[in-house]
TrEMBL record:
It holds the Pfam family Exo_endo_phos. It comes from Sphingomonas psychrotolerans. The record marks D218 as: Important for catalytic activity. This is Exodeoxyribonuclease III. Keywords: Hydrolase, Magnesium, Manganese, Metal-binding. Probably binds two magnesium or manganese ions per subunit. The active site is at Y106, D147 (proton donor/acceptor), H248 (proton acceptor). InterPro entries: AP_endonuc_1 (IPR004808), AP_endonuclease_F1_BS (IPR020847), Endo/exonu/phosph_ase_sf (IPR036691), Endo/exonuclease/phosphatase (IPR005135), ExoIII-like (IPR037493). The record marks H248 as: Interaction with DNA substrate. Belongs to the DNA repair enzymes AP/ExoA family. NCBIfam families: exoDNase_III, xth. PANTHER family: EXODEOXYRIBONUCLEASE III. The gene is xth.
Length: 256
């Protein structure tokens, strides 16, 4: 089973690329982020025509997450995170498919920092940690997949100096990410590439793609029951280089 996390950076703008990816790779589950569209405007028909059932949690203009399942209809379990009734951002959707639980996550960016956006990021990570702890308690195979907007380690970026003041690499962001892992989650990509140097994001500016100046912020975290089934993990980097591509590349795990 191939499970993919893919920040599409606007599903309408990237629809051709997404459908191309689904046709060529035929992933079993795809967690999308940054749809940038309200539910009623999302291209549900095109996705269904491609052979995928879907659960959507859109938002006009920005954010938005979804889970697609090839040849099946995922069952929604939860949308949004508890702990802040005033938070209207569409950043979390959780579904189940058979015995597997999977969540698509679009964590706040947090820039500029310090400031209210960074404070919101940290509080959101605390709320995610609470949900993650509850999911682990179910003792089922669970995958938390998405754009976490955290560069966990120095070797997860092309340049520590260039990213030093960015919210993605602040000690508070990293500490919360490590605390999440310490609950018992496995960072699948890190397990397969322990020395780092593998990127999932390349900015559109400053020739970052051409220079391979990227970093790793898209992660797939596995519960112990899911980690026991892990057979592979990687990044479909080639798709970042196509015309009108997202600035993220599809990032994946395979499970037995």
């Amino acid at each position: 089973m191939k499970i993919v996390s893919y920040n599409v950076n606007g599903i309408k703008a990237r629809m051709e690329r997404l459908l191309e990816y689904l046709d060529e790779q035929k992933p079993d589950l795809v967690c999308l982020q940054e749809l940038k569209g309200a539910d009623e405007t999302l291209p549900v028909g095109d996705i269904e025509k491609a052979g995928y059932g879907a659960v959507w949690h859109g938002q006009k203009g920005f954010n938005g997450v979804a889970v697609l399942a090839r040849g099946q209809e995922p069952v929604e379990r939860q949308r949004g995170l508890a702990g802040d009734p005033e938070d209207a951002h569409s950043r979390y959707i959780e579904v189940e498919l058979g015995d597997l639980i999977i969540a698509s996550i679009y964590l706040p960016n947090g820039n500029p920092q310090p400031g209210p956006k960074f404070d919101y990021k940290l509080k959101w990570m605390d709320r995610l940690a609470e949900r993650a702890r509850a999911l682990l308690a179910e003792e089922r195979p669970v995958v938390l997949a998405g754009d976490f907007n955290v560069i966990p380690n120095d070797d997860d970026t092309f340049s520590v100096r260039a990213m030093a003041s960015d919210a993605l690499m602040q000690p508070e962001s990293r500490q919360r990410y490590r605390s999440l892992l310490a609950q018992g989650w496995t960072d699948a990509l890190r397990t397969r590439f322990p020395s780092g140097g593998i990127w999932t994001f390349w900015d559109y500016q400053a020739g970052c793609w051409q220079r391979d100046a990227g970093f790793r912020i898209d992660h797939l975290l596995l519960s112990p029951q899911a980690a026991d089934r892990l057979t592979g993990a990687g990044v479909d980097k080639e798709y970042r280089g196509r015309e009108r591509a997202s600035d993220h590349a599809p990032t994946w795990v395979t499970l037995r």
